[in-house]
Amino acid sequence: MKQIMCILVLYTAFSVHGQIESLAGHVYFRDQIQKPGFKIEGVHWHLTKDSTKVSFRDKLKKHFMDAYLFQVHEENVNLYISPVVNFQSGTNWLDEDGATLYQNTRGIYVKGTLLKNFSFATTFVENQARFSDYENSFISNHGEFYPNASTIQQNGVVPGGGRTKPFKEGGYDYAYAIGTFLYKPVENIEIRAGNAPTFVGSGYRSLILSDNSYQAPSIDVKYTFLKKWSYGIRRTRCFNLIRKTAFSTVEGYYQPKAYSRHYLNYRINQNITLGFSENSNWSMGDTATKRPNAFYYAPVPFLGLTQSENHTIYGFDAFEVVGQKTRFYQQFVLSGFNPAKMGFQIGVRFYDLLPNSMLQIEYNKVGGELYAANTPNMSYTHYNLPLAHPKGQGFDELVIRANVSIKRVYGESKTVCYWLKNYNERHLLPMDNESPPIDDLIIHQQFELGYRINPKINFCFFGRAVLRVSDIDITQMLIHIGLSTNLFNSYNDY
N or C: which end of the chain has fewer CB within 10 A? Predict the structure, then answer.
């Protein structure tokens, strides 16, 4: 796998037509892309010569509020650079003695094109944060395992942010780097490589593959044929955060597993698209790392069925655009024909019911055994986090989202309701996943009001209120104010 990726990287150095590759996957950008009639912004290949003199103040204002902070445009090179920040402070309004909640994020975001058909994007982000009680519980319950020390679990995992280290009192320290490139050797073939998160579907959630988990190195090849058909493959190296018992280094490496994805999409017309996919985890050994079975490397579906230890999810994904303002979408997933091993999603997006507004209503139902494998370390996870829905499995969920903007002032509301029955939060962990099942009703209500300083990178000044009500947990009301470059999702509505 490593050799193949290296060859592709070297090959792109010699001939490369272009579209911008972007890491930005925040729901703000997804809402725009899902709008009927949306068109991706074209790439400006050269600087426009303007005889009118522009003051330094106006140039700075333009780059700060309407473009990337730094831009370079030459004959064969376009480069865009922007800082990434997330400074926010908050409190649990209902806990007078609670510690101050905060997020302190600094980083850099770079994207660009080289020659004609090669584009790339990369970012590096460092974080220190203190989260609310229910977030701390989730993060710590998905930490790494040390099997040689009586199955100790430590160093929690932040959704989208990865493994953490303790920071001061009750805080976390974590960092991550993401990079990806897109190469089109010919018009109907796309090659992507890197560790950028991927989201499959038109909804707020994905039951097939989402950006909830940590970044994983992968390679994707997509082939379009007969104009309406496309076939793609994906190969990824995932990890269970469980230290291997056999090692010669200071610490044991994490237990790896391989992930394969095959998908076939059919675009009936401009308004209707159907997709079918096979998504499998392949064993790479428990104590000593080994290569997955040779069938893993073949770009052919269903070969994973020859391996009894594999865990496979089959998915159906579709959307239908009606008129200029409405998009319906659905997903159906299964790993067997038992209702406990099935799930579905139905949803609709309404645009511009009010000027510059979006209303989304989505229902998800996931069986209690859908993503769990017979062998726990082969479950549908990466970095101890679900590869699909952040809640895992065994729930019903209703999501209602609405947003509206007046110029750069925006308001958002999000309501998430969970119905849990015999739910086990630790059921997808690679070991020690036995805990008492629970029944619960969880309501997560969030309001946000802000000013979008720079829509290009979703740089916002905002105030946010979250009310979380549970039948078995203490009610929490979180108030935050902050300044943030919102490029990526970090889910806390689980």
Answer: N
For residue 83, give its domain range.
2-43+56-485
For residue 51, is it within any domain? no
Of 450 and 42, which is predicted with more confidence? 450
pLDDT of residue 2: 41
List, in sequence order, every residue forming a beta bridge with 386; answer none if it has no partner.
381
Has residue 490 been placed in a domain?
A: no
pLDDT of residue 88: 96
| CATH code: domain of residue 300 | 2.40.160.130
Has residue 287 got a pLDDT over 90? no
Residue 196: what are its φ and ψ, rounded to 5°? -70, 140
**pTM for this entry:** 0.89
- 49 domain-assigned: no
Q: Is the pLDDT of residue 82 over 90?
A: yes
Rounded CA gap, 393 and 199, in Å? 18
Query: Is the pLDDT assigned to residue 53 strictly greater than 70?
Result: no
Range 131-145 average pLDDT: 93
**Interval 388-434: pLDDT, tens:** 999 999 999 999 999 999 999 999 999 999 999 999 988 999 886 67
Burial class (CB within 10 angstroms; exposed 0-12, middle 13-18, buried 19+) of 368: buried
Number of structural domains the chain divides into: 1
Residue of higher predicted confidence among 45 and 293 = 293
